[in-house]
Every structure is written in C-alpha cells, then in structure tokens.
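Q: Could you fold this chain for me?
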Amino acid sequence: FSREWAAARFRFHPPHSHLAYGLQAGQGGTRAILAAVQAHVITYLLFTRETECTHLERLRRVGRCEQGQALATALAETLWAAGGGGRAVVCLVTSPVTMMPREGCRADRFTERIRLFEFSEKAAAQGFISDHINCFKGEGSHGVILFLYSLLFSRTLER
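A: Sure. Below is the predicted structure, expressed as structure tokens.
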C-alpha cells in the first residue's frame, strides 16, 4: 500500500460544526471507499437515529459520540451486505505478528498482524465495531485498509 493508503482513516470534520456529519477525504484511491461509507453515515444520521430535530438539524447537531456510532453502524451495514446478509468479518491489527509471509511474498509489517473476527449476527458485529471504533478512525490506524480487508473477508475470496 502507498503512504496515502497507509495514512487513510475514517476521520470526521469537527463535532457540532456545519460539516460534522462528513468524513474528511484525502486525495486518490481511498476516496471511493470513504464515499460509500459516507452514504451509510448520512442515512443513519437522517433516518435511523432517534432525535427530535428536523432532517437538516440532524446533520448540524452531530457530536463526537454520534459520529462514532454513525461510523460503527455504517461499517457494520456495509460488511453485513458484503457478507450476503449472513455474516461479517472484522479485521483488526494485533501487536505480535500472527502470520509469516509465504515464500515469494514480501512482508509489509501490517498484513501479518491482522486478526479476523467473524460474526453471524449483525448486531454483534456492530457492537464489536463500536467497541473498537478507534481502530478505524485513530491516527496511524490504517483504518481504511482494515475496512477493505474486512470487506474482502466478509464477501469471501470465492465470491
């Protein structure tokens, strides 16, 4: 992965600002993934969460906690759909290397540390993602790459 991909994460605009509902996107290839997740974030904020505000006010009154919940819901919905509505796989980075690359493959010190967590219930996947949301949005987390791996494993390599 390029430096751009390695640095990509799910980062919102400041809470309670006019763009608090929006993910910040850098240049290049990660923008497509961020745009797809952004659509689910807006859907959650407008139509799913309970609030007494009008639709436009719902987007302007988003705090840090709501940003995290919207992101967790968006990631879980996307992974669940990729898994055909029957499973979701969430990839997180562990500290020690969990796998050594095969002969002829180059180690990147990231992929070797990924651990898979499989869920057969969407609510369980969403709760797990919510508990580990900083793994996708924290500085240096490789959050977009983790999500891309999660999509691939949720969909399965055969499909």
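A (continued): DSSP finds seven helices and two strands in the chain.
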